[in-house]
Specification:
63% of the residues lie in helices and 0% in strands. Helix 4 packs antiparallel against helix 5.
Length: 156
């Protein structure tokens, strides 16, 4: 009996999250982990270097979070016009809403990159600027994963 055989008889109980289609579960967990890591990075930088991140710079992350909510509140069926007939603008309104959401997300990444290179590149602790950029990049990646990696076949 060697080291290779010591875990042969160990069995874990089945997890309800991973029964059936696992794609939505994995996509949701990865997107949530990236979103958490983004905010955690900025909060860590703000606590390690207090006063180095002005209050206005937090708005990039808030805009990225609003972008995540806006992008993922519109289903693909609403974008195609299959199930969405109501509202004041119908399918066109859903497409405008998701476009504005994507613009906000990419603008928050570009804004945080501009803040990194204009303010923090010449200061001694670079970490607050890098954390601000990482936060917005991770939130944007999280939004994209949560939108496009899930399958909506199970919903309707």
């Amino acid at each position: 009996m060697g080291l290779c055989n010591c875990l042969d008889n160990v069995s874990l109980p089945p997890c309800a999250w991973f029964e059936g289609d696992k794609r939505n579960s994995y996509a949701s967990m990865i997107a949530g982990l990236l979103f958490f890591a983004g905010w955690w990075t900025l909060i860590d930088a703000a606590t390690v270097y207090p006063g180095k991140i002005p209050a206005g710079y937090w708005m990039c992350g808030v805009a990225g979070t609003l972008s995540l909510i806006m992008v993922n509140s519109v289903s693909n069926a609403q974008m195609r016009g299959d199930t969405y007939e109501g509202g004041c603008l119908g399918t066109r309104g859903a497409r405008i809403w998701i476009f504005v959401g994507f613009v906000m997300g990419f603008a928050s990444v570009i804004g945080s990159c501009a803040i990194l290179f204009t303010k923090y590149i010449n200061e001694d602790p670079h970490y607050p600027g890098v954390a601000l950029f990482l936060q917005n990049a991770l939130i944007c990646i999280s939004s994209i994963i949560y939108k496009f990696a899930r399958s909506e076949d199970l919903w309707g």
